Amino acid sequence: MSKKKVIKTLAAVIAGGFITMGFNGDVAEAATVNTQVSAQVQNSNPYGLVYRGAITQNVKGKVNIRPVEYEVEGIRVAANLYLPADYDETSSKTYAAVTVAHPNGGSKEQVAGLYAQRLAELGYIAVAADARYQGASGGEPRLRDYPSNRIEDISGMVDYLSTLKKVDKSRIGSLGICGGGGYTLAAAQTDKRIKAVATLSMFNSGRVRRNGFQDADVQGIQKRLQRAAEAREKELTGEIVYEGFLPPNSTDEQLRAKMAELPENTLYRDGIEYYGLSYRHPNATGSYTTESFMKLMAFDVEDRMDLINQPLLMIAGEKADTLYMTEAAFAKATGTRDKEIYQIKGASHIRTYWVPEYVDDAVKKLNTFFKKNL
């Protein structure tokens, strides 16, 4: 299939409801080697974590995890707080802290938890929270995906960290992954309590929902908006319309068959592999309300990137076909003199979530960045 046809196919899929974006790379190995990871880990993990190397018990002298709850705008938020190995409530030491925002359609138990744990291993207090209306957090209707909510969720994580006596409030940073990266950039534009901001495989949700992937479906904008309006009208009678990229209640065999129908090295195929097979979690459904398009399509993180004056690090895979979003937002970050794009060699978008050498590379860069700025 030609590149032009691939982009056209993906534009239709994504504009019509693909959530977790990115992804390039060969998925054959992942499909055969990693399929059992999520089931094995989740069945044995008391915290429901599905990433490799996840904490299974709290041991003194090692990184600990603490499930916590707090409220944002009156809605309950479910989060995991990761504490460094030397954490001691009785000492006078305080710690720098980092918020970690998960991808669209994801949950705190997946890649956000992995990076939060790795940051805690570096000595930071880190919090990974489910977005409101999603995961284990509250909010109705379920799976509403409003940019304003996601942005406030990140400031809500900062609020929560600021209440902890062991957190140095002058040293709070933020990391956002995929869609959570776009929303983290938006939060940092106005929330100056965030002293340093980093993204991994940033995904500009509004731009893609509006224009299609790689801006290949601009002609479909009004059609999508009309569909969203119709979905909102149905909500008045209690009918919630959803869409997404994971067929509900699909078996592994059905998901693999669906992958086989799609072009290799493309977003949708890798999304099915990660969220549907290798690192599946019941709270990461890959769905959202169709009505959300009414808010998503009016959002674009690029619009106010000049408001960011904090140190900025944007990490992306060298081979990611979402790289253009990182590059576009970075170019418009004219308000900061301390900014850097870092490309992980050989990596596609979603492989920065789990491939050990890519994760190690990203964590090493994050450590340098946060150590310097927090």
Q: What is the topological layout?
A:
Elements: H1 3-15, H2 28-33, H3 37-44, E1 64-72, E2 75-83, E3 95-101, H4 111-121, E4 125-129, H5 147-162, E5 167-177, H6 179-190, E6 196-200, H7 205-211, H8 221-235, E7 242-244, H9 252-261, H10 267-278, E8 287-289, H11 293-296, E9 312-317, H12 323-331, E10 339-344, H13 356-373
Parallel strand pairs: 3-4, 3-5, 5-6, 6-9, 9-10
Antiparallel strand pairs: 1-2, 2-4, 7-8
Helix pairs in contact: 5-6, 9-10
General description of the model:
With 374 residues, this protein is an alpha/beta fold. It has a single domain (3-373), classed as 3-Layer(aba) Sandwich (Rossmann fold), CATH 3.40.50. It has 13 helices and 10 strands. The strands form 2 sheets. It has an 8-stranded mixed sheet, sandwiched between helices. The chain has a two-stranded antiparallel ribbon with strand order 7-8. Helix 6 links the parallel strand 5 (167-177) and strand 6 (196-200). Helix 5 (147-162) crosses helix 6 (179-190) and helix 9 packs antiparallel against helix 10 (267-278). The longest helix is centred in the C-terminal third of the chain and has 18 residues, at 356-373. It starts with a helix and ends with a helix. The model is unreliable at 1-37 (pLDDT under 50).
Beta-strand segment tally: 10
- Taking Cα atoms only, what radius of gyration do you get, to the nearest Å? 19 Å
Estimated share of beta-strand residues: 15-25%
Termini separation: 47 Å
Tally of DSSP helical segments = 13
Describe, in short, the structure shown.
With 374 residues, this protein is α/β, with parallel strands linked by helices. It contains 13 helices and ten strands.
